[in-house]
Amino acid sequence: MSHSIVVENVTKRYRLGESQHTMLREALVGGWRKLWGRTRAAAPRFKRALEGVSFEVAPGEVVGLIGRNGAGKSTLLKILSRITYPTSGRVHVHGRVGSLLEVGTGFHDELTGRENIYMNGSILGMRKREIDASMEQIIEFADVGEFLDTPIKRYSSGMRMRLGFSVAAHLRTDVLFVDEVLAVGDLGFQKKCLGTMRELGTHGRTLVFVSHNMAAIENLCKRTIWVADGRIAQEGPTQEVIRAYLASFGATESRTLDLSAVQDRRGTGHVRLGKLEFLTEDDDGRHVIHSGGALAVRIHYECHHDLTNLLFGLRIYSNLGVMISELNTWTTGQEMALARKGKGCIELQIDFLNLMPGTYYVGVWAANVHEWHDVLENVAKLDVETSNYYGTGRGVESRFGLIFLPFRWKHVPVEGGAFCHQPDDRPSATIRQLPLQNATPLKLAST
């Protein structure tokens, strides 16, 4: 079987130190010093970005690429896109290649949106009439019609993102590489992009998709590759790989988590989240809670200077990376109008945690309406255990869904109907039969 992408034992190293491009004067002075022995050249230092990476992608396959920041994902996509070359190993990509690696990649700032579309099509070897045939789709998808003849340098990052994705998706490419750039667009645009990428696979185009959004990866990709420290940590069915990847974040289950050493974070750094505390009703030293139980979470932070309209949030993810809920101070109208420079602590109180038994992951953030200050995903693992909430001895079970909603059933009298009978000591939250006319009464067995 032929493959669209073949990667064989690829290694990439970057040289650290002084630039190799020098002025003539610097080259002459440096040569004179070496000649007279006044300096000794330092041994070159290298940083390994990738080491021994190998995999294959079939035509029409949509493959996810996940990993922490700095793992080597973006370097790998740049090699696949022929932007840079491997230090060793071989890469074969068959067909025309389109890539969306950073906002505005492939655009010339002085050219208009329309001119950039033609330029990108020409690079792919397309004729003008072929580009014209796709122009209407590109413009409609990007939603930049009135700005199409405006220089790209005047576009916002969101506009550049929309046009870049639309060009990559609608021009005639056989293989498409998409990095974590969808985060720039709003939710509506992200949904539209994911739908388009799904269609590309059904039309026989090959797609490699990099994202920190595990729900998007799980929804789009049947196979996923997890990159860690420049190597492939795991490759296989998406759900299995995501479970293993998320599990790597929750190594500690102590009640207090030190966030200061966490490197996988993003934001301006104006606020730094330092510690996370889980407070539950038990005292066994773990943050294990029960379905329907209470939970409090304290977030310790430090502002490096005075900030206005400071917001905090906590996200809860399933073991597949699906965000179940985000609890933030914007929703409750509790943003801090003025946060002074220094340390502080804010506490989230959850009176009733309606999660089914299972393992969940927690992310926290600090921001304001304009920018993210500190965002940490999957920094803690939360184990939720079953509970005897209804007093029947029948615990709340994960097979009944993701969330736990307190409920009760009751009889509704129907004219001519017959009620089922049950012992008086049954709890109020029980399933009861709604009798139908001429139906045989159903008697619930007692326990």
Output the radius of gyration: 28 Å
Helix content: 10-25%
Question: Would you identify the regions where 5 or more consecutive residues have pLDDT less than 50?
Answer: 424-447
- What characteristic shape results from the CA principal axes? globular
Number of strands: 20
What is the C-level CATH assignment of the largest domain? Alpha Beta
What does this entry look like structurally?
The protein is α+β, with helices and mostly antiparallel strands. It folds into three domains: 243 residues, P-loop containing nucleotide triphosphate hydrolases (Rossmann fold); 130 residues, Coagulation Factor XIII, Chain A, domain 1 (Distorted Sandwich); 41 residues, no CATH class. Strands 11, 13, 15, 16, 17, 19 and 20 form a seven-stranded mixed beta sheet that branches. Strands 5-6-7-3-8-9 form a six-stranded mixed beta sheet, sandwiched between helices. Helix 6 links the parallel strand 6 and strand 7. The termini are far apart.
Which key features would you list for this structure?
single chain; 447 residues; alpha+beta; Rossmann fold; Coagulation Factor XIII, Chain A, domain 1; seven-stranded mixed beta sheet; six-stranded mixed beta sheet; 8 helices; 20 strands
